[in-house]
Design brief:
Layout lengths: L3 E4 L14 H9 L3 E5 L10 H6 L3 E3 L2 H7 L2 E6 L3 E2 L3 E2 H4 L5 E5 L6 H9 L3 E4 L14 H20 L7 E3 L2 E3 L3 E5 L3 H12 L3 E5 L5 H7 L3 E3 L19 H17 L2 E4 L14 H5 L6 E4 L16 E3 L5 E3 L9 H19 E2 L2 E2 L6 H6 E4 L2 E2 L2 H12 L1
Parallel strand pairs: 1-2, 1-4, 2-3, 4-7, 7-8, 11-12, 11-14, 12-13, 14-15, 15-17
Antiparallel strand pairs: 5-6, 8-20, 9-10, 16-17, 18-19, 20-21
Helix pairs in contact: 6-7, 6-11
Length: 388
C-alpha cells in the first residue's frame, strides 16, 4: 500500500512556515509515496498550490479531507484548537503518525491528548545532538534563523549605525553588541553582528564556547567563570545559586556598556535562566535594545513580555517576540523541511512504514506510540506529577 504523507496549513497565529517545501515533496513522490498538501499551506513561505502540483503532490481543499487520508502528518507547530473543527489532533485518524515541533516536556496535556487519540508521534525538538542526526536537528536549523533575525531586528530598532565609518562629516564609532549564550542562535547572532561591523562580546556558562566565540572574531567574557555548566548533548545545565549571582555581576557591567544585548540561554524542559535583571535594564544606555530569544520559556530578561515589544521610561527597547523563524519563512521552511524529510527517511523502507524503535534517534524523538506514552523522560515526568 502506498504511504500517504499529509502537509496541513499551519493555523497558529503568525506562523508562516510550512513543514514540507515542493523540492522535498518531489523527492518523496519520486520515491513512490503520495503527498497531499492542504490548499494554501505554503503561501506564507511563498510556495503556491501550483508549485506543489508541479512537484507531484495532490492539493486538498481543507484539513478534514487531508487528515482523512493521511498515514503520516508533517507539521511545524504542535496541534492546536480550531474554531470550526475542534482540536487538530482529534481530526487525525487513529493509528496515524504525527511529526512536528511538539515541545512535549512543557506540554504534558498535549502528550496525553495524542495518546488518547491513538496517535504515534515524533517530536522534532527532541532530536538528539549526535553526528548521525545533524541533518535532522530542527532546533539548530531554526535557531540559526532566530539568531540571524534577532540582530537585524535590534539593528533596525537602534538609533545608530552598526559599523565604524570614516566620513567627511567625522568618524562613526561602531555599535557594541553583547550576546548572552553561545549556542547555535548565539553564535549566529555573533556572526551576523560582526558582518554588520559591530564590536561583539559573547558570554556562555560552558567553557567550550570560548573557542567558538573567538573564532567568529568576538571577545569571550570568562571573568569568574568557575563552574562549567555543559550538560549531555552540549546543552547548558542549571548553575548553582552562587555561580548564577557571580555571573550576573559580570554580565551587569557589560550590559551597561552595550548598545544591543541579545539573550539566547535555554535549558531543555526548564524555564529560561534569568540573566538580565530589572536593575540591569535600568542601567542600560538610553536607546539601547535587548532581544530576548528565550521569551517563550519565560525569558532571560526579568522585564521581557513574551510576544511583545516594549520600551522602558529610559527608552530601552525590549523585544520579546516568540517565533522569529516564522519571520524568515522561506529559508526557515527549507531547512525544517530538510530536517523532517531526513527523520522520515529513517522510518520508511521500500515505501513501507517500518521504523526501528530501538534506533537511538527514533527512541529519543518518539513520544507516543499507538496510544501509549513511550518516551522515558516524559513517562518519568508523568510519574513525578502523579506522586505530588
Amino acid at each position: 500500500m502506498t504511504l500517504k504523507i499529509a502537509v496541513p496549513k499551519e493555523i497558529t497565529h503568525d506562523e508562516n512556515r510550512v513543514a514540507l517545501v515542493p523540492r522535498d515533496a518531489e523527492r518523496l513522490t519520486r520515491s513512490g509515496m503520495e503527498v497531499f498538501v492542504e490548499s494554501g499551506a505554503g503561501l506564507g513561505a511563498d510556495y503556491t498550490d501550483g508549485d506543489y502540483e508541479k512537484a507531484g503532490a495532490t492539493v486538498v481543499p481543507n484539513a478534514s479531507d487531508l487528515y482523512g487520508v493521511a498515514d503520516v502528518i508533517l507539521k511545524v507547530q504542535k496541534p492546536t484548537e480550531t474554531e470550526a473543527s475542534g482540536h487538530e489532533s482529534e481530526m487525525m485518524r487513529q493509528g496515524a503518525v504525527l511529526i512536528a515541533l511538539l515541545d512535549p516536556l512543557r506540554n504534558p496535556s498535549l502528550v496525553s491528548r495524542l495518546a488518547d487519540c491513538k496517535l504515534t508521534s515524533f517530536s522534532m525538538d527532541m532530536v538528539p545532538r549526535i553526528t548521525r542526526s545533524q541533518e535532522m536537528d530542527a532546533l539548530s536549523s531554526q535557531s540559526t534563523v532566530a539568531g540571524y533575525k534577532a540582530v537585524l531586528m535590534a539593528a533596525n530598532r537602534l538609533g545608530r549605525m552598526m559599523p565604524m565609518m570614516v566620513t567627511a562629516a567625522g568618524s562613526i564609532i561602531p555599535a557594541k553588541v553583547l550576546v548572552l549564550g553561545a549556542g547555535v542562535a548565539g553564535l549566529q547572532a555573533i556572526a551576523t553582528a560582526r558582518r554588520l561591523g559591530a564590536v561583539v562580546k559573547g558570554f556562555d556558562v560552558r567553557a567550550a564556547a570560548k573557542e567558538q566565540v573567538e573564532s567568529l572574531g568576538a571577545e569571550f567574557i570568562d571573568e569568574h567563570l568557575q563552574e562549567d555548566a555543559e550538560a549531555e548533548g552540549g546543552y547548558a545545565r542549571e548553575l548553582s545559586g552562587d555561580q548564577q549571582e557571580r555571573n550576573r555581576q559580570v554580565i551587569h557591567r557589560h550590559v551597561q556598556e552595550s548598545d544591543i544585548v541579545i539573550t539566547t540561554a535555554l535549558i531543555p524542559g526548564r524555564p529560561a535562566p534569568l540573566l538580565v535583571t530589572k536593575e540591569m535594564v535600568g542601567d542600560m544606555k538610553q536607546g539601547a535594545v535587548l532581544v530576548d530569544l528565550a521569551a517563550e520559556t519565560g525569558g532571560n530578561c526579568e522585564l521581557t513580555e513574551p510576544g511583545e515589544i516594549v520600551q522602558t521610561d529610559k527608552g530601552v527597547s525590549l523585544i520579546g517576540l516568540t517565533n522569529l523563524p516564522a519571520t524568515v519563512p522561506v529559508h526557515a521552511s527549507e531547512m525544517y523541511s530538510r530536517n523532517i524529510s531526513k527523520l522520515l527517511g529513517l522510518m520508511v523502507q521500500d515505501n513501507q512504514w517500518s521504523p526501528d524503535y530501538e534506533d537511538e534517534i527514533l527512541d529519543a524523538t518518539c513520544i507516543t506510540r499507538e496510544g501509549e506514552i513511550v518516551h522515558s523522560r516524559i513517562k518519568e515526568q508523568f510519574r513525578d506529577q502523579a506522586a505530588t
